[in-house]
Amino acid sequence: MKLTHTLLAGSALALVAGAASAQDLTLVSWGGAYQSSQQKAYVEPYVEANPGVSVTWDESSAEAVAKLRAMNEAGNITWDLVDVVAADAIRLCDEGLAMEYDPDELLAPGDDGSSAEDDFGDLIVSDCFIPQIVYSTTFGYRTDLVPEGVEAPTDVCSVFDLETYPGKRSLEKRPINNMEWALYCDGVAKDEIYDVLATPEGQDQALAKLDTIKDEVIWWSAGADTPQLLADGEIFMGSTYNGRLFSVIVEQDQPVGMLWDMQVFDLDGWIIPAGLDEESQAAVEDFVKFATDTTRLADQSKYISYGPARLSSAPLVSTHADLGVEMAPHMPTDPENAKNTLLYNYEFWADYRDDIDAKFQSWLAK
Amino acid sequence: MSDTTQNGPMLAADGTPLKRSLARALRRQKMRALMLISPLLIFVLVTFIAPIADMLFRSVENQMVSETLPTTTQVLGEWDHSAGEPPAEPVYEALYYDLFIAAEAKEHTKLGTRLNYEYTGVSSLFRSTGRGLDDLGDDYLDELEEVDDRWGEGAFWYDLMTGTGSTDEDLVAAHAKRLEQLTGDKLSGDVGFAPSTEIAALLPKTTAAYADFAVYTALVDGDVVAEEDPWESVYVGLMTDLQTADVASYSGPEAEALQTAAEAAQGIEYIPLKTFFAEEDEDWLNVDIWATVQTYSSKYTSGYFLNAVDLQLTPDGIEARPENQQIYIMLFKRTMFMSLAITFSCIALGYPVAWLLANLPASKANLLMILVLLPFWTSLLVRTSAWKVMLQQQGVINDVLVWLGLVDDAARLVMINNQFGTIVAMTHILLPFMILPLYSVMQGIPPSYLRAAKSLGATNWTAFWRVYFPQSVPGIGAGSILVFILAIGYYITPEIVGGTTGTFISNRIAYHISSSLNWGLGAALGAILLAVVLLLYWAYDKIVGIDNVKLG
Amino acid sequence: MALTIAKPTSAVFAAGVAALFGAFFGIFVGTATGSTLLGLVGGAAVIFALSWAAATFLRGQEKAARWGFIVLFTAGGFLFSGVPGLVLGLIFGTFFGWLTFYVASGRYRTGLPPYSTPRQVLWHFAFRTIAGLILVFLITPILVVMPLSFNAEDFFTFTPEMLSFDPEGYSLKHYRDFFTNSDWQGALWNSVRIAPVATILAVGFGTLAAIGLSQPHVPFRQAIMAILISPMIVPLIISAAGMYFFYSRIGLQGTYLGVVLAHAALGIPFVIITVTATLVGFDNSLTRAAANMGADPVTTFFRVQMPLILPGVISGGLFAFITSFDEVVVVLFVGSAGQKTLPWQMFIGLREQISPTILAVATILVIISIGLLTTVELLRRRSERLRGMSPS
């Protein structure tokens, strides 16, 4: 509704002014609350400042790599800017489907005067990846289902502890993250997880650990599953993205708590598809420069509890737009929350994904 | 007509022989029928059959290996993996130049991903090596520039390579064609460069590397060759050539610089490419990786189909996949079994309803028919979600059972995320497809048959089983095949309510198409599934006839 | 119509049958108030007494007696547990009043042959109950979806407030969301733009081809039929992936036309099947008669053939329409943001953010489908009247 209004107002202005040429940007994102945070934090102010621009959303991020590949095969790129997780960005960049860029040239410097490259720092994990947010995959649990006389869980390994915390769990239907947690809770030191996981014995060890809870696991594949299962009381605990848990706990006021232990750090950001025509590319670059500046990234955190990818945005993180809740303590980037974390190992999974996935699926089906 | 002799052919009214006239009429009739059909036939062929054929073709297509590494696969052809030794220097040399241009065109990681399906670890091997290729050439360039600054300049190189006298246009054309194959794009335009035959003979590797550079610069980047600094691979080529070439007698442009460089090259440490690759990643000495490349270098492969039936193509022939990776045969069997279960439950539930509908007065039957059709018209996604709400442990059915005290609160039934959930939800979704054909068949069975049987002394059961049921079999056949074929290809419902034990082969196809991006394997699985469905369709057509399906 | 003349049965028999049902419903009432067993026995006893009294003393005044049941139960229910009890009492009162007299008057036998044994009568009703339960199974999801669409919370869950009929637990906000959210409205608009065009394409080509196919002497009939039916038998995910690659290559991917063509292809088998089925019963001498009387083929088609096969065409068209309107797999691949249809939006809704707005949409669609189905039914009756085949 709001979008339509803005668009209508925008096009009306453009007609009156008659100057700005109409430019339509197709942005690809995930839909849901995340996309609406981008809409509010980036698109609405941008369209207000540039009345000639209109924005169309395509909720295809989940299929972005496949679709970009096919578009590239066909030589017809219809997307202007694509929101993807870092692993996909690396893949797209490797295959030449995403445009490489120079951070200092494309992105605005930080508010504190730091250059864009320093401000984003290590988060630029690929030459094509324009980081936006830091998110975590972690566990939420039903506070009212914690057995009496037992402390609420604080340790990720309570997932595997069926005796203390009986009840169903939900885990994502893929090996990534689950294998790491299983090894960690099977006594493998944190910095050795990937070395162990690279060996067939290590993979078997992880699956054996997962086997101990297999009967109690509901496997999810859509991001909305775990929150729904938690709200139904269908599971005791389950993995999902921290922003989803924030929404369940704070916005929906459900009896749910969350763990900040061994949560998997991951990044989400933009890529610009390779092979855009000059006009679209210029328009997109202008938008990206605006949408990734210090203020805009900090603004996004008013609507969703994901940490801004810029260092300089961190001090600007304020309160939730509607609820007035202080957002910083809900961010994966908050030092309190980041005491024991695991960083997604992109390189490892690029190599082992096919192999481990085959084993994982075969194990699942048994 | 009357004048026709007994022996002559019978004539039609217009005097043509009747046989021919009839044949013509028949032909005209056929033509008219075909003309009516052809617009749709063409429409379906273009919008549907062509895409399916195109899709299934991917299951055997394997040009990527030979197009990305054309020289390497050619040189590798003679290598024998069973000796247990990695290939010799020429293979690594070919690999370097193949990989270099592939890395420029960003094609090498695609190949890495492709080969990673067959051998874990190839993906990062290609990616990391792709990044290190420049370094070798850069090192050589630094040394050469100490002798003569101009070695880093584009114009200098252009003069050197163009030389004087006759030029080798074919060489450039061959390289352009190879680049076209690599990128898959049609390239056109003038390269603006051709090496002199003399240089090409004297410095063959340099020339080949420079030709790659020139073709890419001119046709892909659209730049002028003479103005661009050559690729690092050219220096590697030059250093390799200088190890053996006799440049003293060369007299073309920049001959002096070349001779000085040749002298200086004696003092530069030359790193054989095998050593270089081994230093980049010791996996390059791994025999298995090379054997995999060799096995998959043909243009078409049965590899995807073999993977789809839990086998794999190895250098030593076809082998079973490791047991802990076998999944597809089981999934195919499960898909069959569950589709059968769904079909039977549809028969069990559909038969009484169809009977009731067929035996009620039409006005009542049509009202009930709306109940049958209504779910049919409700979004599949919504119906599936509704089953989730019904069947889950904290769902409606469990709640009622617990409330009634039939089930203990601690032992709520597990009815979803397993085969039961999938069967219930899919039976519900497909039930109308069973009821409708059954209903239309039963409508055609006169009720007087049953009454006649009964009046002749048959019991209810005998009358039904011996008289009515046999007549309704075509309906069961039509409904069953329809339900079975539709069930076998479903994937959204099993995905939502199937958990781990209730998923179908289509779920894996969807996974390979949109998530793992192993399109070849997805296509192979799809082709097998399609073959099964077509076989069933054929059987159906033979037994029942497709015309006998009636919907509503 | 009646096969058997109704013969009154004994009051004890009628009361006994009613008591069985009383016991059954008593279980639920009993459970709700604490004791299942008490409910069972109490329900049976109360209903037996009431039914026996009604069947014995009020046999002549059926209407008054049935009203009496309703008043008694409604009042009892209200005193017992307020408004929900009142509603339940109304239902129970109506049901038991009707049941008592249905059995007592012997009307239940009118539809059965007079020589039916009691076992056959019992089977007759048991069978109908089974069939009725299966029909309930068929509409169960709809019964679940409708109340949930009024959920005040953002999950697919029956909240305690909803179960206790607390108005707090209900809200229209998901309907409001559907009507005010530009995503949903855009999706609705896209569906409305795509489905009819796909349907017209499918029906146009399909009807022509079906007429062609039903001519005698069609060469390669089986093969052609197989090709035309194939969109229905090829697993959807394969079709979707194939169309996706192919349409990308010819520039149709992500275009309105591409989605329309894909959906038309998927709808064609339904048109072919229904129209050929209607044509099986078509009397070809009618077209010859028309031709004899000087009508050209086009006139013959529109004036003679078309009106007669219209029900098949409409029914096929509706199937084609619903295929497009409810299709998510193919559009997800072939479409892009500009062609986001309702099912696609629902799919996103389920994947990214579970919101009962989907259920509100489904409820609205169900109501529209009921309307459409009723229209079809009326049209069908009309056409049968036209053909002189009045429904029996």
Structural account:
The complex is a heterotrimer of chains A (366), B (552) and C (392). In chain A, strand 1 (23-28), helix 2 and strand 2 (53-58) form a beta-alpha-beta unit. In chain A, helix 1 packs parallel to helix 2, helix 2 runs antiparallel to helix 13 (294-300) and helix 7 crosses helix 9. Chain A is an alpha/beta fold and 366 residues long. Chain A has 14 helices and eleven strands. In chain A, strands 1, 2, 3, 4, 5, 6, 7, 8, 9, 10 and 11 form an eleven-stranded mixed β-sheet that branches. Chain B is an all-alpha fold and 552 residues long. Chain B folds into two domains: 70-295, no CATH class; 328-548, MetI-like (MetI-like fold), CATH 1.10.3720.10. Chain B has a two-stranded antiparallel sheet with strand order 1-2. The longest helix of chain B is centred in the first third of the chain and has 40 residues, at 18-57. Mean pLDDT of chain B is 88; it is low at 1-5. Chain C is mainly alpha-helical and 392 residues long. Chain C is 76% helix and 0% strand. Chain C has helices at residues 11-33, 36-57, 62-104, 118-148, 160-163, 173-180, 182-213, 221-233, 236-249, 256-280, 285-292, 297-325, 329-334, 342-352, 357-386. Chain C starts with 10 loop residues before the first helix and ends in a 6-residue tail after the last helix. At the B-C interface, helix 1, helix 16, helix 17, helix 18 and helix 19 of B face helix 1, helix 4, helix 7, helix 8 and helix 9 of C.
Structure keywords:
heterotrimer, A: 366 residues, alpha/beta, D-Maltodextrin-Binding Protein, domain 2, eleven-stranded mixed beta sheet, 40% helix, B: 552 residues, mainly alpha, MetI-like fold, 2 strands, 67% helix, disordered N terminus
SSE topology:
The complex is a heterotrimer of chains A (366), B (552) and C (392).
Chain A: H1 2-17, E1 23-28, H2 32-49, E2 53-58, H3 64-74, E3 81-85, H4 86-94, H5 103-106, H6 116-120, E4 130-142, E5 169-172, H7 178-185, H8 193-197, H9 200-211, E6 217-220, H10 225-232, E7 237-241, H11 242-251, E8 256-258, E9 263-271, H12 278-291, H13 294-300, E10 307-308, E11 341-343, H14 346-365
Parallel strand pairs in A: 1-2, 1-3, 5-6, 5-7, 9-11
Antiparallel strand pairs in A: 3-9, 4-7, 4-8, 4-9, 4-10
Chain B: H1 18-57, H2 63-68, H3 70-76, H4 89-104, H5 108-116, H6 122-147, H7 154-162, H8 169-183, H9 197-202, H10 204-221, H11 232-244, H12 255-265, H13 273-280, H14 287-295, H15 303-308, E1 311-314, E2 317-320, H16 328-359, H17 362-376, H18 380-391, H19 396-403, H20 419-443, H21 447-455, H22 460-488, H23 492-497, H24 505-514, H25 519-543
Antiparallel strand pairs in B: 1-2
Helix pairs in contact in B: 3-4, 4-6, 5-6, 6-11, 8-10, 10-11, 16-17, 16-20, 16-22, 17-20, 18-20, 20-22, 21-22, 22-25, 24-25
Chain C: H1 11-33, H2 36-57, H3 62-104, H4 118-148, H5 160-163, H6 173-180, H7 182-213, H8 221-233, H9 236-249, H10 256-280, H11 285-292, H12 297-325, H13 329-334, H14 342-352, H15 357-386
Signal peptide (chain A): 1-22
Pfam family, one (chain A): SBP_bac_8
Keywords (chain A): Signal
